Amino acid sequence: MRALSIAAIAAAIVVAQAPAFSQVSLLFPHGVASGDVRETSAVLWTRPSRSAPVTVEVSADPQFGSLVFQRTVTPNPERDLTVKVLASGLAPATRYQYRFRVGRGSYSQQGAFVTPPAADASADLTFAYSACSDGGHVGGAPALSMGLLDAVVAERPDFFAHLGDNMYPDSSLVPNPIFTLEAYRGKYKEIRSIATFRNFMASTSMITTWDDHEVENDYDRETVDARRWAEGHRAFMEYSPIAEQPGGRIYRKFRWGRDVELFVLDGRSYRSRHVSKTAACDNPPGGRVPDLAPTLPAPIRAAFAPLVPQMRLPVPSGCLEALTDPNRTMLGLSQKLWLKRELARSTATWKLILNQTPIQEFFANPYDRWEGYAAERAEILTFIRASGIKNVVWLTGDTHATLVNDVRLSTFTPPFETTGMKEVVTGPIAATVFAESVAGVAGRAVVPALLAFLTAPVPQGVGMSCAVMDRYTYAKVEVNSRARTVTITPKDAAGRSICRAPLVITAAP
Ligand SMILES: [Fe+2]
User: How many Cα atoms sit within 13 Å of 81 on the Cβ side?
Assistant: First the structure.
């Protein structure tokens, strides 16, 4: 009898919840997100399925007993019905819940975020970061698993930093890429239609930046189609929980208490043409195939020659000059000056740079990353060192591999100097892994040879302390205020640590 009544109660609860759940799915099919959370404000995002007024509610109480912020907005078809609200009047170091509703009782999924502590408060911080989430569908279903994000949610991070390639219009899984505004919007909708992704978005706030795939693979601003870039930018801004800045600017910074300042870069929007898109490094000259490692010392090129015949050829004259041309830029003048100024001005113990393409040297196919913009790379690294700016760490995505190393001015050539900075590259969330890409370009036998080169000590290799190229990964970052340490642990989709040991850096005084 007792068991029956419990079963009856349970059945009644299921019946009572069922209509609400289906309304959620119908009215807010792409979930909710929060981002750019500051001490007293947060950007809240959703997309209702029809153009009816939407009210956002924010509360420190999980039951929404009292609201600290409420606003009603009407979704704009010009913005594909995406809704972004800047919630204000929040308190620092506080966990908030938020939800959207249409009418009186049709609610979205509930999301949560944590505001940072006041800038003079010392506080620990745990966050996670990764990049490269291909949520493309094939035959009506997601082609790749987003399961890594379940592991991220389980970490209960204070926020998640997405370092770019939020979606892939030109995914290798899709035969005919389309680069239109509608196609870009469709890709954001596709990934937000995956329950795992929606659950992840609701679980914590995001600091989002973009890289190349939000427009097209490996683009630079000098050669990209201007209309395509504008449409890619528009769709990214519509669908990301990112604050709107003058001129559509994406680079920005965030403070987390006394100990942390985060500098979010936009390494795409202002960069010069890739040298690989000129003929300067084609090897053989005129062959339209850029040299795969033009800056690699001759003895190591020779060691790779049995596997990569191009390494038998001398580096074309003019190639190195093109790579080191001081007139070429990755950040553009304004962003470069902003980064230098704000790094020098920062009073935070840790200056964490959220970066797209790697800044450490690893020589293989260098054109799309900082090594392909060698003069500006050297300028920024030299500036940080010469200005005495301490405790800078580079957190990076793009490569679809986990690569941990020193950031050196020059690994193999005089003055052989390091900068005292480390970089942890990680990812992808879900996309073709680096080992597969290398096998596709240079042959499968090159994969173990490259791995050996990456991990061998200098001067046989570049001496990475961790190099993992064959799986989906993210990194967990823990800042311990009292111990003055930052611990960075790259992990796989099961939440297991993948390096021999986490990277632990103790702050310089
Ligand atoms: Fe990517």
Answer: 16
Report how far ligand 1's centroid is from the alpha carbon of 396 (Å).
11
CA count, 13 A, side-chain hemisphere, 258: 8
Q: Is 74 exposed, middle or buried (0-12, 13-18, 19+ CB in 10 A)?
A: exposed
Cα 134 to middle of ligand 1, angstroms: 8
Strands 252-256 and 260-264 come out as antiparallel
Radius of gyration of the chain (CA): 24
Residue-wise DSSP of 163-222: -S----TT-TTSSS---SHHHHHHHHHHHHTSHHHHHHHHHSEEEE---STTTSTT--TT
Q: Ligand 1 centroid vs 386 CA: distance in angstroms?
A: 33
CA of 330 to the centre of ligand 1 (A): 17
Ligand 1 geometric centre to CA of 254 (Å) = 24
d(CA 417, ligand 1 centre) in Å: 30
Q: Tell me, in angstroms, the distance from the centre of ligand 1 to residue 130's CA.
A: 10
If you measure from the C-alpha of residue 270 to the centroid of ligand 1, how many angstroms do you get, rounded to a whole number? 19
pLDDT score of 22: 41
User: Which tens digit of pLDDT belongs to each residue from 377-419?
Assistant: 999 999 999 999 999 999 999 999 999 999 999 999 877 778 9
Domains of the chain with CATH codes: 24-115 (2.60.40.380), 117-273+328-509 (3.60.21.70)
pLDDT tens column, 260-319: 999 999 999 999 999 999 999 999 999 999 999 999 999 999 999 999 999 999 999 999
Count of positions (residues) in the chain: 509
CA distance 46 to 58: 14
User: Quick one: which of 184, 139, 211, 238 has its CA closest to 429?
Assistant: 211
Measure 68 CA to ligand 1 centroid, in angstroms: 38
Distance from residue 93's CA to the centre of ligand 1 (Å): 33
pLDDT for the residue numbered 25: 59
What pLDDT is attached to residue 402? Answer: 98
Please report which helix (H) or strand (E) contains residue 489, including its range.
strand 485-492
CA of 399 to the centre of ligand 1 (A): 6
